[in-house]
Amino acid sequence: MKATFNKKERLKSKKEIELLFSEGKSISKYPVRLVYRKSTLEEGVTVKAGVSVSKRNFKNATDRNRIKRLLRESYRKNKYIVSNTTHPFTFMFLYSGKEMPEYSLIESKIKVILQTFVKQEVASK
After folding, report:
1. 107/78 Cα distance (integer angstroms)
2. d(Cα 79, Cα 98) in Å, to the nearest integer?
3. What is the distance between the alpha carbons of residues 25 and 78, in angstroms, rounded to a whole number?
């Protein structure tokens, strides 16, 4: 499996995002939170993911963009953990910290969150 995060795998639909926040479940490991929901996606795509950083905590767009890049990169490198899910899902990663994170912190938290998600999905079958 390629470790890419192309356009088909990105969560862009406003309708899907609204459904995600109204009906989705959440896993949190400070400072990263995952909101996820089972969905109906196109063929070949098992997970669509998006990232978000609060404007309240980070006023400068450059800071928010850097954190979003870190979130996307750590998800891209670790998405193999969730690649063999049986049902398609939509993900949204939210950064809730107030200070600029290190990449190693973000990556470790995303790994833990994705492993927790896989355990919960296996348990719910």
Report:
1. 8
2. 26
3. 20
Using DSSP bridges, classify how beta strands 47-53 and 25-29 pair: parallel, antiparallel or unpaired: unpaired
- In three-state secondary structure terms, 56 is coil
Write out the chain's pLDDT in tens, 125 residues. Answer: 578 888 989 999 999 999 999 999 999 999 999 999 998 876 678 899 999 999 999 999 999 999 999 999 999 999 999 988 888 999 999 999 999 999 999 999 999 999 999 999 878 76
Q: Which neighbouring-strand residues pair with 33?
A: 28, 94
What pTM was estimated for this model as a whole? 0.93
CA distance 32 to 90: 16
The Cα 117–Cα 103 span in angstroms is 21
Q: What angle do CA 68, 71, 75 make, to 5 degrees?
A: 140
